[in-house]
Amino acid sequence: MRRSVWPFAGFTIALTLSAACSKAAREMEPEPAASEAELGEEVNFEGFPDSLGLLINEVEQEAVGAEAGEVEAEVREMFDASGAELEELPRAETPSWDIPITINDAVERWLEFFQTDGRENFTIYLQRAGRYEPMMRAMFRDAGLPEDLVYMSLIESGFSPRAYSRARAVGLWQFISSTGRLYGLRVSYWVDERRDPILATRAAVAHLRDLYEEFGSWYLAAAAYNGGVNRVRRSIRRSGSDDFWMLSQRRYLRRETRNYVPKLIAAALIAKQPDHYGFLDIERHPPLAYELVRVPGATSIDVIAKAAGVSVEEIRELNPQLLRGVTPPGGSYDVRVPPGSGHRFALAYASVPPGERVTWVVHVVRSGNTLGQLARDYRVSVSAIRAANGNVNPRRLRIGQRLVIPRAGRIPTYTRTAPRTRRSAPARVEPQAGSGPYITYTVQGGDSLWAIAKRYEVTPRDLMRWNGLTSSRIYPGDQVRIYVGSE
């Protein structure tokens, strides 16, 4: 039997679910299809005494159909044998939801799972919710959408901006790259805005609004978010029904999508009343708070951290979208710093010489390269290279792979390395320096001036001017100066 519960102003219902949590978690598969009557049956709450704050218990389902007087008498017997006036007792605040809450076997299985096998992870998710839920609720509220949709992020990523799935979905809202780009999220070698908590949530709000406008149901919108719009469209067309539960029972949807909505409902039930489900004394992370500072492109986060007087890890935590430990080259970039550090950063950063603001170069792996050799060539440690590249496996370097190489202090001035083999050197004139910080790039096999310019978001003409080239011809081993902080 399915019971649908909707919260209305002045009318809240507390559901006490007492499914036997001692049972081992069963496979998350819907039960055999119920009849039409069972699917449409709802609990009728009319006639129940509002003053009792009535708790409806799964163990006593027969009470749902009993007379109001009998129910009141039974509740009084359970809670106050003396017949004292229960209305005067303090009453706990009852949560309400702004998404439809349906309780059925599939939901109860997820409730049981989260309280047993999934308990440890769910506890972590509730802790992380403290950091991101307030920001998310504000965005959904401003868009006029149900705030409880935030719990989709809980089941998508466990409120982790660094979450990554086998389907290559990324971030708090698990966008694949194509959908992320469709909603304005930049995905490049330098930055992945699917991991940006603010920008990704803004994109999720827009995406869910579009899905609801098409399907007119939050259950179907959630199913389409998980399984894809076209799959839900086909399921509706083939079945002739737009009821999620009917589509699920008759298996028109994939198994993962059939489980998605029950999982969301169970997560929302527990997240809003964790004590009731045994999640006691959850220490929620403090809400996300930050100040924005604007820096030139290709600014290293260790320089930002030093100027702000905070740790590098704090900058990483606030800016998980930065993939290479630097801001993307070409143009300025807004970076989040801890509250109260923005003013200090502005004063300290202004005194840093431009050449010291960029403390890295990019190396494209060639045949025979090893991390040890690169560490010697660039005079850094192997551990520093690994840390700057997500602990890259030294045994799995690929030809053409790009590595960020941290550099201490000032970036070297332009030097030209003699090429290994070529017929003649390109003609040169006096270089014209650009403005701001720069990097020195070593030309690799297959490189062209146009490809390098595109990669660093500058023009081939700029590269020729900065390096005194009269021809666009370049050769492996050449070193090219690139002013990445210039507008």
UniProtKB/TrEMBL annotation:
Record-linked PROSITE patterns: LYSM, PROKAR_LIPOPROTEIN, TRANSGLYCOSYLASE
Checking SMART domains in the record gives: LysM (SM00257)
Query: One Pfam match, by short name?
Result: SLT
Q: Example GO biological process term? A: peptidoglycan metabolic process
Domain LysM: residue ranges: 361-405, 439-482
Family annotation (SUPFAM superfamilies): LysM domain, Lysozyme-like
Instruction: Report the GO terms under cellular component.
Output: membrane
For this protein, the record's InterPro entries field holds: LysM (IPR018392), LysM_dom_sf (IPR036779), Lysozyme-like_dom_sf (IPR023346), Transglyc_AS (IPR000189), Transglycosylase_SLT_dom_1 (IPR008258)
State the UniProt keywords alphabetically. Signal
MF (Gene Ontology): lytic endotransglycosylase activity
Extract the signal peptide range: 1-19
The UniProt entry's sequence similarity note says: Belongs to the transglycosylase Slt family.
Q: What is this protein called?
A: LysM peptidoglycan-binding domain-containing protein
**Which species does this protein come from?**
Candidatus Kutchimonas denitrificans
